[in-house]
Write a structure and sequence with these properties.
- The complex is a heterotrimer of chains A (130), B (487) and C (447).
- Chain A has 130 residues and is of the alpha+beta class.
- Chain A has three helices and nine strands.
- In chain A, strand 6 and strand 7 form a beta hairpin.
- By secondary structure, chain B is of the alpha/beta class.
- Chain B is 34% helix and 11% strand.
- The longest helix of chain B is centred in the last third of the chain and has 37 residues.
- The radius of gyration of chain B is 25 Å and the shape is globular.
- Chain B starts with 44 loop residues before the first helix and ends in a 12-residue tail after the last helix.
- Chain C has 13 helices and 15 strands.
- In chain C, strand 11 and strand 12 form a beta hairpin.
- The radius of gyration of chain C is 25 Å and the shape is globular.
- Classes of the chains: A alpha+beta (130), B alpha/beta (487), C alpha/beta (447).
- Chains in contact: A-B, A-C, B-C.
- At the A-B interface, loops of A face helix 14 of B.
């Protein structure tokens, strides 16, 4: 299970990469493994939408399950990864790279404090598994 | 052998049906509105018959063997029902002909409404909903309309136990109301403390499946109903499991305000490979005015010489139609035939033997398969299809292996609150001999799971096709065949 | 004990295995004060008694086989080849459940796949689901598809007044909690032009019928373009049999095509069960409610079929599902598939043309009668409205005396169409029957 050290994480299995005022987010390796083969990714928000922390911006589907993907912190959507509509399997093969879901302008930098680092997220997964 | 698609059997110029030539003068065709191509297949009658007969042989049905699909009540479908629905006066009467010329149909529908009212303990019934889920939507819209009518518009929360079928929350969303999930306790009942926390003046109602999806009669049903009524809400009963309650208890007597029946489960109408079903809804007195219209009623009393005159009447505050015409009439005829055969005593026996059969299987299997809520069940129970000492075996493998033994698998992975669930509902129409054969197969499979797990992973071995690639189906959508041999 | 196989001895053995003495002991969780109610229900009957009773009830109805029927209005008496019911009576089809176990359900799955294919060909659309309950509920689901497509950000639905009145009522019922505005059908004269004027940035869907409830056939290309200009969807409600000769709605730019499949091999059966056709464009497939069959391969690479895109559905998405629907009309979809396979490209065309020519013959003759006139100004298919010299109910009563089932009385649904009868003509009516009908109308023009 890959949990890159340079990212932040949510309890609902999203990762966040922060570059200045812009954040990139996607589903973690653990989440894609739980969902198994992803067959569909859909952005449920539009560029320009202002979403709060915890609001859904995307939905992903495997053969047997579906999951919403939530905003790790509040912000305004600036970019949606359109490529995933045709290549949803990237979520399985490259969850932290090509399978980023959306980019957004962070609303309140202070909210980033609520996220977990890699160590805390790893622990969080272990607790759930036991 | 793979059966070709209907288009692959087509040959240009082949014809199955002969039709008369026009006996009237021809009119001009409508300018600019005639289609150029009609890409339908061209076959002879014998091609069509053999194609669909061969397809039928790739199916498993109740007429072939045990179909213990939990929560689906796959009981035997009496042949009489099929003949009855095809009687000319039923099959060829028109839904919009004057009700005075359809008195046979209306008398049948009226009797069915009356019987369903009596069985459920309700004051009114609509036969319009086309399926259980459709009945749910109808019932929830009635709940909404009731509160709206009283000006109680802030009631928008519908409480739903976590063990409920997925249709309950989906129906609630369609009604425009909000779903609040309530957890179950360790005995499989609704967690009363959690429920209390949600009871306030925003509650429109609660959806209750009783017996619940674990096959257990809700032990606190009266407390649950009192709590909901106490805060001004209504209780919706999901009647999917009515097969356990005929003559045993009337949901209306327990305080349930509205409930849907599944004629295709409880009252023996066939499932048809996914439909048509029928989902009548029963309501208590205070909701009768909100039923979808029209309902059948007596518009002129009869006497010794004359039968009453039946008509179609729209309830005063009706939520409106949920379907065109009068519901799935052909299914209503089948249910009528069944209820008339069974009568009062027969319907009670239906539940008695459904419950006996389920408990018999439970005790015969529980030494081998863990039954997580192991108490006397109603018409079905849930076992786990997984063992700690056979970690690679899942409920799905057991199900697929059952196919090799000639049985339809139980319901898998539902309810979600039991891991690796195998939900087993034998129904009353299965004999002890059939049940024993099923038990023997299940015990064999448990042994194979430990000794030869690959045998299960590769199952089924004896079906028309092996396990199918569902990921490919979803990623590379092929949803219709591109016709071949079409000019 | 109808349909229950247990002998006394077997019951005894089973009770012992369970560990109780009698069946009543299995119900201890049921509150005792309500246990075993004394139900007021009739006693059981034997099979022959039940069949006698049902035969008597069925014979208390008028039915279209023994009269000349000019009644349509959404349910049509067409020829049904014998093969259709022989296939429907295959117990492997009708006693099966929804095909959750594809390995032993390939018959149902392939038949539905073929049904989907045939619906796509008829309508010209790209995808079809495995069917809805009926035409009315299919239309309601089309509205929900459009709302979801606009993510709930639009709230106006434009409905043509010439959509079946009961279908519009069902849309009203389905959407009553959704805070929508349904408009367009206030005036029965509203045609494509008037509907176009109602389209705006808040419109999610505009729906029309083809042929419409009053029989008219019209090209909706301009309406489709106007809808797309404001990013709204065009839904066309069809009579699939008419598509045997008429241009498919896909050519108008339709985004969703729904309809009542009853004319395709299903008897009128007092209103059901029928089959709701639902087809759309591929880009909307994931917003489409209902079951869907897709092609794939098994472990050995052999072609096979499965239910696909199931995560859209209620058992996984629960409150976020596209719809609450779990069933389709499997057996009725099979009937439509068998019917179309039997009719084939030549047969369906011929049936449609027979309906068209006979209806036009009837219309011409009726229009020539004193006191009667055909209301339709545009082209029509096999149904048309007739202005009558007397209330339709009175005329129909007179027709019934000579075994003719008259047309549908439009006065209740359309205020402006008092004394208007909607006449339907199918291939089942001979020239002689049409002539008798016309003669009878003439006789009935006065008291």
């Amino acid at each position: 299970m890959e949990i890159p050290k340079d990212l932040k994480y949510t309890e609902s299995d999203e990762w966040v990469r922060v570059e200045g005022n812009i954040a990139t987010t996607g589903l973690t390796d653990y989440a894609q493994d739980q969902l198994s083969d992803i067959v569909y990714v859909e952005a449920t928000a539009d560029v320009g939408d202002e979403l709060e922390k915890g609001e859904a911006h995307s939905a992903v589907e495997s053969v047997k399950a579906a999951a919403d993907v939530y905003m790790p912190v509040g912000g305004t959507i600036t970019e949606i990864n359109e490529a995933l509509a045709d290549t949803p399997e990237l979520v399985n093969s490259d969850p932290y790279g090509e399978a980023w879901l959306v980019k957004f302008e962070i609303g309140d930098q202070g909210e980033l404090e609520t996220l977990m680092d890699a160590g805390a997220y790893e622990k969080h997964i272990e607790e759930r598994e036991s | 052998m793979t059966e070709p698609l209907i288009y692959e059997l087509s040959s240009p110029g082949r014809v199955a049906v002969t039709l008369p030539e026009p006996d009237v003068p021809l009119s001009d065709m409508p300018a600019g509105m005639v289609r150029e191509q009609l890409p339908l297949p061209e076959l002879a009658e014998v091609d069509v018959v053999r194609h669909f007969v061969r397809l039928s042989q790739l199916n498993y049905g109740v007429d072939i063997g045990l179909y213990p699909l939990g929560s689906c009540t796959m009981k035997y479908n009496p042949k009489l029902n099929e003949d009855a629905a095809r009687l000319t006066g039923f099959a060829f009467s028109h839904p919009l002909q004057d009700p005075e010329t359809a008195q046979g149909n209306l008398a049948l529908m009226f009797a069915l409404q009356e019987w369903l009212k009596e069985i459920g303990g309700f004051a009114g019934v609509t036969l319009q909903p086309a399926a259980g889920a459709h009945g749910e939507l109808t019932g929830i819209l009635i709940v909404r309309a009731y509160h709206q009518d009283r000006g109680d518009t802030k009631r928008t929360k519908i409480l739903i136990p976590d063990s409920a079928h997925g249709t309950n929350p989906a129906s609630t969303t369609m009604s425009g109301m909000e779903v609040i999930e309530v957890p179950s306790d360790e005995r499989g009942n609704i967690d009363l403390n959690a429920l209390k926390g949600h009871c306030d003046d925003c509650v429109a109602g609660l959806m209750l499946t009783n017996p619940n999806t674990l096959g257990l009669f809700e032990e606190h049903v009266q407390e649950v109903v009192e709590l909901i009524h106490g805060c001004g809400g209504l209780v919706y009963g999901d009647g999917a499991n009515m097969n356990a309650l005929l003559g045993i208890v009337r949901p209306g007597d327990l305080g349930i305000d509205v409930l849907h029946y599944n004629l295709h489960k409880t009252f023996s109408t066939p499932h048809g490979g996914g439909g048509p079903g029928s989902g009548p809804v029963g309501v208590a007195e205070h909701l009768v005015d909100f039923l979808p219209g029209p309902v059948v009623d007596i518009v002129e009393e009869g006497d010794d010489e004359q039968p009453p005159l039946y008509g179609l009447v729209k309830p005063a505050k009706s939520i409106g139609r949920v379907k065109a015409f009068h519901g799935h009439f052909g299914i209503l005829v089948r249910a009528y035939a069944y209820m008339r055969m069974q009568g009062k005593s027969g319907l009670r026996e239906v539940s008695d033997y459904a419950v006996l059969n389920a408990n018999y299987l439970r005790v015969k299997l529980r030494e081998t398969y863990k039954v997580p809520f192991d108490r006397i069940c109603m018409h079905e129970f849930v076992a786990e299809g997984h063992w700690g000492d056979a970690p690679d075996i899942h409920a799905l493998d057991i199900s697929k292996r059952l196919i090799d033994y000639g049985f339809h698998p139980p319901t898998n992975y539902f309810p979600l609150i039991v891991p690796e669930a195998l939900m087993i509902e034998p129904t009353e129409t299965e004999s002890q001999r059939t049940l024993d054969a099923f038990v023997a197969a299940m015990l064999d499979i448990a042994r194979e799971s430990h000794e030869d797990p690959e045998l299960l992973h590769d199952a089924p071995h004896d079906a028309p096709v092996g396990r199918l690639d569902e990921v490919r189906a979803a990623r590379q959508l092929v949803l219709c065949c591109k016709p071949v041999n079409i000019e | 004990m109808a349909y229950i196989p247990h002998t006394d001895e077997e019951r005894q053995q089973m009770l012992e295995a369970v560990g109780v003495e009698q069946i009543d002991e299995l119900y201890e969780a049921v509150p005792p004060e309500f246990r075993f109610p004394d139900l007021d229900l009739p006693d059981p009957l034997s099979e022959m008694e039940v069949m006698d009773e049902l035969t008597a009830l069925s014979e208390a109805n008028l039915e279209v086989k023994h009269v000349s029927s000019f009644l349509g209005a959404g349910a049509y008496n067409h020829f049904i080849p014998s093969v259709v019911d022989h296939i429907l009576r295959r117990n492997e089809f009708y006693t099966a459940y929804t095909p959750y176990q594809p390995e032993i359900s390939q018959g149902t799955l392939q038949a539905i796949f073929e049904y989907q294919s045939l619906m796509c060909e008829l309508t010209g659309m790209e995808v079809s689901n495995a069917s809805h309950y009926d035409g009315a509920t299919a239309l309601a689901e089309a509205v929900i598809l459009a709302l979801n497509q606009h993510r709930g950000k639009r709230s106006k639905v434009v409905l043509s007044p010439a959509i079946h009145p009961q279908y519009r009522q069902v849309v009203q019922t389905y959407t009553q909690g959704m805070g929508l505005t349904l408009t367009g059908d206030e005036d029965c004269d509203n045609g494509a032009q008037e509907l176009m004027a109602l389209l705006d940035e808040d419109t999610t869907l505009v729906a029309v019928q083809y042929p419409d409830f009053l029989g008219n056939i019209e090209d909706f290309t301009a309406l489709g373009e106007a809808a797309h200009a404001v990013d709204a969807l065009l839904c066309v409600v069809v009579n699939p049999l008419a598509l045997g000769m008429l241009k498919p709605p896909a050519e108008f730019g339709a985004d969703v095509v729904v309809g009542e499949g009853q004319p395709l091999g299903i008897p009128v059966s007092y209103g059901g069960p029928y089959v709701g056709i639902f087809t759309t464009r591929e880009k909307y497939v994931r917003k489409m409610a209902g079951r869907l069959v897709g092609e794939t391969v098994d472990v050995d690479g052999k072609r096979g079929y499965v239910l696909t895109l199931t995560p859209r559905e209620q058992h996984i998405r629960r409150e976020k599902a596209t719809s609450n629907i779990c069933t389709n009309q499997g057996l009725m979809a099979l009937a439509a598939a068998v019917y179309l396979a039997m009719m084939g490209k030549h047969g369906l065309r011929k049936v449609a043309e027979l309906c068209y020519h006979k209806a036009h013959y009837a219309a011409k003759r009726i229009d020539a009668l004193e006191g009667y006139s055909v209301w339709n100004k545009k082209a029509f298919f096999n149904e048309f409205a007739v202005k009558c010299p007397r209330p339709v109910a009175e005329i129909n009563a007179g027709l019934l005396d000579i075994d003719i089932l008259g047309g549908y009385d439009l006065s209740e649904d359309y205020g402006q169409l008092q004394d208007h009868m909607l006449v339907a003509v199918t291939e089942m009516l001979s020239k002689e029957e049409i002539d008798d009908f016309v003669d009878a109308l003439e006789e009935l023009s006065h008291d």
